[in-house]
Structure formats: C-alpha cells, structure tokens
C-alpha cells in the first residue's frame, strides 16, 4: 500500500524521467475494463461448456447403464422362458391317467 511519501517520490521520478514511446500505454481505462470483462465472459463461457459436456457425459452413461440393465432383463426372461418350455412340454405329454398311476404306485410303495 502506498502512502503519501511513496506517491510524491513516484511523481518526482516520473517528472524527471524521459518517457519512451514503447513504455506508453495508449489504451484508455474504459477499453482496458472492457477487455477484462470480455476475458471474464470468455472464461465463464468455457466453464459452462465444460459443465454441459460433463452433464452430457453423465447422461449418456446413465442411458448406457439403463440399456445394459434392459438387455440383462431380456436375457433373464429368455432364460426363464427356455426353462419353462420343457416343463410345459413334459406336462402336455403326460395324461391325467399317467399322473394317477404314478401317484397310486407311490402310495402303494409307502
């Protein structure tokens, strides 16, 4: 932080020095403020794009997980149907008379 003595010394130094063209900044403070504001807006835009990209990546990961689960459920259903088919075929081939005969044979053995 500059005090009054530092400010006075700076003014005296500038008053005694030779000003070179390459040391002079021709940009006004308003223009400099506009440039800084534009840089901040650009940084904000980049951050928003990154956030949107991350959100899209998470959403696509969720969709892939949902699709994987759906395929797994379908696979289980096909397996259950495949296991149920022989039972139905066996049950369709067996008549009530055969079932009664098997049950009566088991009752006779006990």
Using only CA atoms, what is the Rg?
A: 43 Å
Low-confidence blocks of residues: none
Strand content: under 5%
The biggest beta sheet reads: none
Principal-axes geometry comes out as: rod-shaped
Distance between the termini: 106 Å
The SSE string, one letter per element, is HHH
Computed structural class: mainly alpha
Q: What level of helicity do the residues show?
A: over 70%
- Please tell me the overall pLDDT: 87
Number of strands: 0
If helices are DSSP runs of H or I spanning 4 or more residues, what is the number of helices? 3
SSE order and pairing:
Elements lengths: L3 H13 L12 H65 L2 H14 L1
General description of the model:
- The longest helix is centred in the middle third of the chain and has 65 residues, at 29-93.
- The termini are far apart.
- The protein is rod-shaped and about 130 Å long.
- 0% of the residues are buried.
- The chain contains three helices and no strands.
- It is mainly α.
- The chain is 84% helix and 0% strand.
